[in-house]
Design goal:
The protein has helices at about 45-50, 75-85, 100-110, 120-125, 140-155, 170-190, 200, and strands at about 1-15, 15-30, 35, 60-65, 65-70, 85-90, 160-165, 190-195, 205-210, 215-219. The chain is an alpha/beta fold. The two termini are about 20 Å apart. Bound molecules: adenosine-5'-diphosphate and magnesium ion (MG). Magnesium ion (MG) binds near residues 45, 90 and 163.
Length: about 220
């Protein structure tokens, strides 16, 4: 369970101090599937980075299972994140000069993670089994998007974060990705936070939050 209280996030833009999130409260229970919608620049990615402890400069309280995250050492946080959180990044963050198989296996092997699927099984689910040994630099954007999804769902993550997983897709492929995420979520039942500016995509989730006037509001 994640509990956030009175979150404020400041940036320094030239000489000015600007804030996004003003005393925002939020809680996320295990097994929830939620979406956060808001226009571009409203702070969605920043919020995801705070949730995943990549971004650690904020004021307020962020607790995981009643433990205050700011009290943990960097080393402990990095290890903990590796074993508990998977991320579908907006720009995929795949390693271009490794194969599809190597990209998927890397994090699983490095952190000795428990799998939901073998690499071939998950690639079959995303219709990419014929790309197992292809280098990522040879893939199209649409193929890379599905590799990024496969990598996030292949292991038993506690929390899956998806940042705009459909932003670069046409209408047909957007629908395919939405169905894929729902199918995998139903199969595995993990906690998902999905970020999007697209209301149709947000409808996938059980709960929808909206970023409004620098706060998160449940709709
Ligand atoms: N490190 C930073 N320094 C200054 N401004 C930032 C920084 N990170 C994000 N911002 C600003 O915060 C706002 C929210 O950014 P972001 O979280 O990326 O929004 P979204 O994902 O909703 O598009 C934007 O105006 C962005 O320019
Ligand atoms: Mg963003």
């Amino acid at each position: 369970m994640i509990e956030i209280k009175k979150l404020v996030k400041y940036f320094s833009v030239s000489w000015e101090k600007v804030s996004i999130f003003e005393n925002t409260d939020f809680s996320l229970w295990d097994w929830e599937f939620i979406a956060i919608v808001g226009p571009s620049g409203s702070g969605k990615s920043t919020f995801l980075n705070i949730l995943s402890w990549i971004e650690r400069e904020y004021s307020g309280s962020v607790q995981l299972n009643w433990q205050e995250l700011s009290k943990l050492s960097d080393a402990k946080m990095t290890r903990f994140r590796g074993q508990n959180i998977s991320y579908i990044f907006q720009n995929f963050k795949l390693i271009e000069n490794l194969t599809v198989k190597e990209n998927i296996d890397l994090i699983v092997d490095l952190n000795k993670l428990e799998r939901n699927f073998s690499t071939l099984e998950i690639l079959k689910i995303v219709w990419l089994e014929n790309k197992l040994n292809s280098y990522v630099y040879n893939l199209s954007g649409w193929e890379s998007q599905r590799v990024a999804i496969a990598r996030a769902f292949v292991w038993k993550t506690k929390l899956l974060l998806a940042d705009e997983p459909t932003w670069a897709l046409d209408v047909v492929n957007k629908k395919i990705v939405m169905e894929l995420i729902v199918r995998l979520q139903q199969k595995i039942g993990n906690t998902i936070v999905l970020i999007t500016h697209d209301d149709e995509v947000a409808q996938l989730a059980e709960k929808i939050y909206r970023v409004y006037e620098w706060k998160l509001e449940l709709t």
